[in-house]
Protein: MYND-type domain-containing protein
Organism: Chenopodium quinoa
Amino acid sequence: MKVIEKKKSRTSNNNGGFVNGGGDGNKRSLLSSENDKNDFVYTCFDKVVPCRKRAKISPEFSAGGSDFFDALPDDLVVSILCKISSTASCPADFVNVLITCKRLNGLGLNSMVLSKASPKTFAIKAKNWSESAHRFLKSCSDAGNVEACYTLGMIRFYCLQNRGSGASLMAKAAINSHAQALYSLAVIQFNGSGGTKSDKDLRAGVALCARAAFLGHVDALRELGHCLQDGYGVRQNVAEGRRFLVQANARELAAALTCTTASGSTYWVSSSSPQPTGSRHEASTVGCPLLSDFGCNVPAPEAHPANHFLSDWFTGRTGENRGVGLRLCSHAGCGRPETRKHEFRRCSVCGAVNYCSRACQALDWKLRHKGECAPMPRW
């Protein structure tokens, strides 16, 4: 009997199946997998005997059913997870790694990984706030993550009304030269937040603002400029105050130009010919014309994730959720609420809006309130 070999001659065994062909007496063979190139088929007149070549697997992995990932050292995996946590664009990017397997979950909660997590890694939305989210933020702050200390401090101070713990977390971030934490503590000192009106400390607020301004914080530069112009908590110096305001605008413009260069868009407009309200030009111009007097339109600065959380937390909430008669800062990118009645300053012209700081007032004036402000009716 003649034996026909496909691919390679080899001694056949009798473990194969039998596949019959058509009624003309010819026989045809079917492989267990048509695309499998490791199959050898021995065709006889009466039967087909498939034989599969064995895959080569190392004995140390074939016994336990593990893979090469288990052989990677922990230090290498932690280094990779540090890179992932520091570049994550949303919490899901990091959470998806933690739920992959037990080993990644354990190494992902390593203190080194949590200390390098970016603000967007724990930028939790207010509607998704839970005890587990609180524990995760606490773990990041305990690991030495400065951004987590500031974010959790803001949430505890304003949302959870745990003033002492929130202020201490922000102070921990401020000690590590976190400019946003320094400015937030300055706002608390200017307003006496969490206490009475007599708890205001203007000199401490100016000192904190000056330190944040030294680190390049734009709102702190603007706040310090207004304090010097008005003599608020510091000896009046109009020329020095104007210098700080110009420096704040310059830093804001530099940041905007950096962003527009990367995106390929432009914000330069002509200030000599104002556009009518509702025009097509106004609709196509995106941003806040902070430097409109100088002929350019700068986009509104992106708010910190902590301010986003505050805005979402208090948006739509009734008075009993944040205190009866307490108001939010009218600047959309702030989100800070009052901790007592009449804590924030009202607009001296219309009295319809209120702000936690002069920096928020200046931003909201150019962004929105300039076109809405109207004098109050006199009695």
Q: What stands out?
A: Residues 197-265 form one domain. The CA atoms of residues 49 and 229 lie 95 Å apart. Confidence is low (pLDDT under 50) at residues 1-49, 266-289. The longest helix spans residues 238-263.
